[in-house]
Amino acid sequence: MRPLKTVLDFYINSSIHVALAVYALAWLTLLRFGVDYDKNILYFVFFASITGYNFVKFFGIAKFHHRSLTPKLKAIQMFSLICFVAMSYYLVKLETQTLIYVSIFGAATFLYAVPIVPKKLYLDEQQNLRSIGGLKIYIIALVWTGVTVFLPLVNNNYSINDDVIITAVQRFLFVIVLMLPFEIRDLSYDSLKLSTIPQTIGIKGTKIFGVLLLVVFFFLEYFKDEINTDTLPIHLVITVIVLCFLLFSWTRQNKYYTAFWVESLPMWWLLLMLVFS
Asked: Which domain holds residue 94?
């Protein structure tokens, strides 16, 4: 069992799992708008997610403690380098207009980790966008929305119409709700200066907030010009599943509850779409 746990921990800590979640959401966008599988943008999104997440998570550690990194962190660092090379390979295959969007989201990721904003704006000593009170969850949701909705469509020259905008709003809400179990889990450890949602309105209020977002997420589907009745049941099922994970979230939860199961929900959504739609 220990070797299996070691592999699972590396799979999660090296951001492969979260990258598959982003990849799944990007593929869902292509399926939703009837666009053929685009391996260049999907593989780019996958490798860029690993590179970006590991940069954000380990930038400070690698910068100040390079020589004292543990073997596990060194392995992740080497793995991230390989993913960066793969990301660069697929980057040059993208359409020119896509590169503009990539640069915007890349800059957001960079600012999220690197301290270049004036110190007076920060609420914590880390001095990056993560440390600005209340912003973290919305920055992540915004980047995920851009990467998983707009990048796949722009790279395939799909016009940004009203249905795309509604889908982007849905994706933004979906990602925020997915992050609420993480914020509940970290309630005992986050600095009060971060002003996370559970810190601001409590665990019960956070769950009520998440339920309201999921209601909006579901019913926005009916405001689209093209309503696919075949996928509505899947939309309902994934909404209910996310709702259950949110309601059962607590501060004392198994470490794999959020890091594995919650983050796997986009993959389950994709699987339902591939099998039943």
From this structure: 2-276
Q: What is the DSSP letter of 260?
A: I
Specify the pLDDT at position 59: 62
pTM: predicted TM-score of the whole model, two decimal places: 0.89
The residue type of 221 is: E
Q: Output the CA–CA distances (angstroms, integers) from residue 229 to 92, 167, 234, in the order listed.
A: 38, 16, 10
Residue ranges for the chain with pLDDT beneath 70: 1, 59-69, 112-134, 190-194
Tally the C-alpha atoms within 13 A of residue 84's C-alpha that lie toward its C-beta. Answer: 12
3-state helix, strand, coil in the chain (%, to 5): 80, 0, 20
Residue 262 contacts residue 228 (beta carbons within 8 Å)? no
Compute CA 213 distance to the chain's CA centroid, rounded to the nearest angstrom. 17
Sign of the torsion angle spanned by Cα atoms 132, 203, 57, 109: negative
Q: What is the DSSP letter of 224?
A: S
Contact (Cβ atoms closer than 8 angstroms) between residue 180 and residue 70 = no
Q: CA 4 → CA 7, 255, 268, distances in Å?
A: 5, 16, 22
CA 1 and chain centroid, separation: 29
Half-sphere exposure of 216 (CA within 13 A, CB side): 17
User: How confident is the model at residue 123, as a pLDDT?
Assistant: 47
> How far is 174 from 162, CA to CA, in rounded Å?
18
Instruction: Write the CA distances from 2 to 9, 76, 215, 259, integer angstroms.
Output: 10, 19, 41, 18
Structurally, the chain folds into a number of domains equal to 1
